[in-house]
């Protein structure tokens, strides 16, 4: 398989998942250039993450529990959260709860896409391997992004719960990302029997979050009123 084919196969899952969640915005889709910019920031985030993770491995060692929850999930999800919070949370385009999901997923999938390209090139990955990675790490990053964005949306539009929801928006992706990595690192021979129900749960929870975020949109009420007036 040519290098171009490998790169395209590695990029496709992230782009497809981003398009899926982008189109799930029922009431007011976000500016595509801003979503693309957050996707690009997610790609660029890979490089500082690599440096920090290497430094933390030297400092803390490679114990599976520490690596999964602190070095891998902790570093990656905190930096994604940092980007979305400081670039988007107070942005004028963030005008309904679902927007948090769109931008968080864009950053997460930008990160996952370059990570997938690196893996494919460095390991001469086959199509079957890339399909498996599309189902596991790439879609996993998307699910963690949905969690993050869902709670950021709740924080944005529920001022009385802001502190708690901001905490959840960072903590929940770290927790589930850590669980995901820990299973892969420790369940060497039977990981698939844990990972399948885990991914089913994460997808189910994410789709519920998508539905709930859309249901809380203030634009939903406006659209309903417009239909009544007509």
UniProtKB/TrEMBL annotation:
Keywords: Cell membrane, Hydrolase, Membrane, Protease, Transmembrane, Transmembrane helix. Its main location: membrane. It is a multi-pass membrane protein. It is found in: Cell membrane. GO terms for biological process: proteolysis. It is an enzyme of class 3 (hydrolase). The chain crosses the membrane at residues 6-23, 35-53, 65-88, 100-122, 134-153, 165-184, 190-208. Its EC number is 3.4.-.-. InterPro entries: Peptidase_PrsW_arch/bac, PrsW. Involved in the degradation of specific anti-sigma factors. Belongs to the protease PrsW family. This is Protease PrsW. It comes from Paenibacillus baimaensis.
């Amino acid at each position: 398989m040519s290098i171009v084919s490998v790169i395209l196969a590695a990029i496709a899952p992230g782009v497809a998942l981003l398009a899926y969640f982008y189109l799930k915005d029922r009431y007011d889709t976000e500016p595509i250039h801003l979503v693309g910019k957050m996707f690009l920031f997610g790609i660029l985030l890979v490089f500082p993450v690599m440096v920090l993770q290497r430094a933390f491995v030297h400092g803390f060692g490679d114990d599976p529990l520490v690596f999964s929850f602190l070095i891998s999930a902790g570093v990656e999800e905190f930096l994604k959260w940092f980007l979305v919070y400081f670039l988007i949370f107070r942005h004028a385009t963030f005008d309904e709860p679902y927007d948090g999901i769109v931008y968080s997923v864009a950053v997460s999938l930008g990160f996952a896409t370059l990570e997938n390209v690196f893996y494919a090139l460095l390991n001469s990955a086959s199509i079957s391997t890339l399909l498996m990675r599309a189902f596991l790490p790439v879609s996993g990053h998307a699910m963690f992004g949905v969690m993050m964005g869902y709670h950021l949306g709740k924080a944005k539009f529920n001022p009385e719960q802001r502190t708690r929801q901001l905490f959840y928006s960072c903590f929940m992706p770290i927790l589930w990302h850590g669980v995901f990595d820990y299973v892969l690192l420790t369940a060497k021979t039977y990981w698939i029997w844990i990972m399948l129900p885990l991914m089913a749960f994460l997808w189910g929870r994410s789709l519920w979050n998508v539905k709930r975020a859309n249901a809380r949109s203030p634009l939903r009420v406006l659209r309903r009123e417009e239909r009544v007036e007509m």
